[in-house]
Amino acid sequence: MLIRDPITETAQRVNQRNQALIQSVTRSDFYEALRRGDAFDVELNDVAITSAAEIGLLYILNTNTKSDLYIYALYLSVGTSTGGLGVANFVNLALYINPTGGTLISGGTALTPTNRRAGSGKTAQATVKGNTGVLTVTGGTRLFKHELVRSFPFNISPFIVDVLLGPNQSMAVTYTPETGNTSQVVNLGAAFYYVPTDQFSDENV
């Protein structure tokens, strides 16, 4: 039997050990999303924190009914704290899956993600809200809570999170300053893209 390429009619090549020679091209999910205009960044600038309590910074709800929303990185920048106890202290960054309440969800500022493909007119199918004050997050399941050593100012870029939100699933990011804080400026960003939900239809989750 002779195997031929259906497009070029070229015959399948075989080496001296009767092994078929195959050429393949691999593209990442991110690259394919970028080509489609389905990759985005969202940034929350200069949130002034005036207490040491945990506050909600960023909320993302996937409103795309045909694609999962994959958040692969967060970008965190923290300014100097006024009133904090010193270098022995920690600050905390936490991520919650499907939070159920809090003033960040009900009263946060709507944010518009930026498309990572130059010239694309696509917009993110998501509800994205950010904090411009002392807003809270309640309920949901805490996925992680990272303690970061206090050394101000500092940047974490990127902070890999690998979170997948199906249609109508959400997540929120909170930040807790060091004990005694009375004034601090924080910036947070997130990078995400969409993966069609039927891309791996043979998988059972």
Brief summary of the model shown:
With 205 residues, this protein is mostly beta strands.
What does this structure look like?
The chain has 205 residues and is mainly beta. It has one domain (29-195): Jelly Rolls (Sandwich). Helices cover 6% and strands 43% of the residues. It is built from 2 helices and 11 strands; from the N terminus they run αββββαβββββββ. It has a 6-stranded antiparallel β-sheet. The longest helix has 8 residues, at 29-36. The two termini are 40 Å apart. The relative contact order is 0.34.
Describe the protein's topology.
Elements: H1 29-36, E1 39-49, E2 55-62, E3 67-78, E4 90-97, H2 103-107, E5 109-110, E6 114-115, E7 126-130, E8 141-149, E9 154-165, E10 170-176, E11 184-196
Antiparallel strand pairs: 1-6, 1-11, 2-7, 2-10, 3-9, 3-11, 4-8, 4-10, 5-7
- In whole angstroms, the N-to-C terminal distance is 40 Å
CATH topology: Jelly Rolls
Q: Tell me, rounded to a whole number, the average pLDDT.
A: 84
User: What's the CATH class label?
Assistant: Mainly Beta
Overall, the morphology is elongated
Number of helices: 2
The percent of residues in helical segments reads: under 10%
